[in-house]
Amino acid sequence: ANPQPGDQVLDIGGGTGDLSLAFARKVGPTGRVVHTDINEAMLSEGRNRLLDLGVVLPTAVCDAEKLPFASGSFDIITVAFGLRNMTNKDHALGEMLRCLKPGGKLLVLEFSRVAKPLEKAYDWYSFNILPKLGKLVANDEDSYRYLAESIRMHPGQEELRQLMKSVGFGHVDVHNLSAGVVALHVGIKC
Hints:
alpha/beta; 7 strands; 25% strand; globular
């Protein structure tokens, strides 16, 4: 993301505040980081966590498909592990594009498609082991089954790149992490 002092950053689906905290340290007192989430309980947890660390950021409960910010407000917008839960990804991406300044960056960190040689093993793990671990560790098998299912329904790397371009991003790079288990899409508003 390479945030600079004074940058304006929007963290969508910021939940626990991890990214917001990291950005706040980089943009400094002349910058601004807005911590948002559609889930008020998650946003409150993150806000409280940030306050416990002595960091006060503007927070807002908002839907990424209808962002309550002026056009051209932000240098950087991030969404980490949240895009796959958005119903109308094209509307959400269009809203993110609208809120970026010209030359601004959208960073989407999301589970994606693993490399072909690992597909079968990853699917087996995701649908057989992951839900059992969820039951054992968090007493919540269903949420971990949903996680595996939502990952399979989310667009793959190239599909998401094309979707970002179709809503108006002038340039989109894709960086696979962990053999594609996770991918970082970086879109530039031209």
